[in-house]
Amino acid sequence: MIPARYGPVLFSLILSGVMSLLVSGISTFRALQPQQDFVSLSAGAWLTGWLFAFPAVMLAAPLARKAVALLTARG
């Protein structure tokens, strides 16, 4: 098992992987002709997207948590 102190990093890794997979898959699907090689092009786009998404999530998650705390009622 992974120690709990790595939870935020693991969360960011999983979230960025899933979101970049969805976004790059949809974008690639919309941009391609039906006969083109969707899987290999989508995988390349996903890996590039994940490279940028992971650090973005690491930076954005604490800001999002603070925004949610400010915008929600306590109690």
From TrEMBL:
The keyword Transmembrane applies. The chain crosses the membrane at residues 6-26, 38-61. Pfam families: DUF2798. It comes from the Bacteria. Keywords: Membrane, Transmembrane, Transmembrane helix. This is DUF2798 domain-containing protein. It comes from Acidovorax delafieldii (Pseudomonas delafieldii).
